[in-house]
Amino acid sequence: MQMTKTIVWKNLTPEQRDKTIAENVIGAKILTECKGELGEQAISPDGWYCLTCGHMGAWGDDSTHEQIPPHYSTSIGGAWRIVDFFRGTYDVDVASALFQYDVAILDRRMHGKQYVATANTPAEAICIAALQARGYEVITE
Question: What average pLDDT does the segment 40-68 reach?
Fold first, then answer.
């Protein structure tokens, strides 16, 4: 019998949620040093940002940094990367209601096993359903 891994969604910061998605849904190893090129911040010419991952710092600071994953849980653009990742093996349906978003991920390999999540934003609903599809129990309350 396979044990289900549990994630308490409300206890995670947005950064922790994004890292959890990157590592457990997408399969990326985030604990690596980013090799991105630095650019000047438009808001503050005293600072830099990484053109690869978006990390920010001040000129004169050490530019060595851990790669930041995409903003899967707070940006529909980031969450849509998950939808694209699942395409081909899964069907992903996103629906909106008055005060919530519903996402259903249908696994065609598992005789139509379906993973459903509801959240206040489409990005969160996509993330929660994706974690469920990867075998996680996600507690949202």
Answer: 73
